[in-house]
Automatic annotation (TrEMBL):
It comes from Blastococcus xanthinilyticus. This is TetR family transcriptional regulator. One of its GO terms (molecular function) is DNA-binding transcription factor activity. The keyword Acyltransferase does not apply. Residues 35-54 bind DNA. Pfam families: TetR_C_24, TetR_N. InterPro entries: Homeodomain-like_sf, HTH-type_TetR-like_transc_reg, HTH_TetR, KstR2_TetR_C, Tet_transcr_reg_TetR-rel_C_sf.
Length: 200
């Protein structure tokens, strides 16, 4: 069942605000340990008010994971990720991924905790692997173009880069100093200096 994120139903909560609270509770308690009764209590509404927006808790999980994944894949379709030298496209994807993570921190945190315990989670993991392949292909292309040092496997480079990006879920907190752009600048400065085959 597809539901437009901006749809409004009964007064008080849009689907977006419902999703924000659901993601927060899923991150706090774990998806499996969260009941619809608990979500309703946190929202201050009845369960029927939630069901007005979504048919099930599973749909809330799917929407939350899609929010993070759709934003990540959108980065790979931006002009900076599709034109120019592969090393520049890779940098664009890394910067864009940091931007997504800092803007959608709760949803990305939830995504990174998915273990494939349900069809919805398995689908999310498959999409994550497709995103990883996009990054690995960019690293490989940059290596072939002579801009990335050839002594590290592209898949390892990709994992290391996004290990650094994903670690932001453990320590980054909006409004406490660095914004997403500053974080991206710092990450690129540290990682790409070691990644490039020659200074440019």
């Amino acid at each position: 069942m597809s539901i437009a994120p901006g749809r409004r139903g009964r007064p008080g909560h849009s689907l977006d605000s419902l999703l924000d609270v659901a993601v927060a509770v899923f991150n706090e308690r774990g998806y499996d340990a969260t009941s619809m009764d608990e979500l309703a209590a946190r929202l201050g509404v009845t369960k029927s008010a939630i069901y007005h927006h979504v048919p099930s808790k599973v749909e809330l999980l799917r929407l939350a994971l899609d929010r993070a994944l759709d934003a990540l894949f959108a980065v790979t379709e931006e002009p900076g990720a599709t034109t120019g030298p592969a090393i520049d496209r890779l940098e664009h994807v890394v910067r864009g991924s940091v931007r997504v993570l800092t803007a959608e921190l709760p949803s990305v945190t939830l995504l990174l905790r998915v273990r494939g315990n349900s069809p919805v989670e398995q689908e999310a993991l498959q999409r994550r692997r497709r995103f990883d392949r996009v990054v690995t292909d960019l690293v490989r292309a940059a290596e072939e173009e002579g801009d990335v040092r050839p002594d590290v496997d592209p898949a390892v480079t990709s994992r290391l880069l996004f290990g650094a990006v994903n670690s932001l879920t453990e320590w980054y907190r909006p409004g406490r100093g660095l914004d997403g752009t500053a974080v991206a600048d710092a990450l690129v400065a540290i990682t790409f200096d070691g990644l490039r085959a020659t200074s440019r």
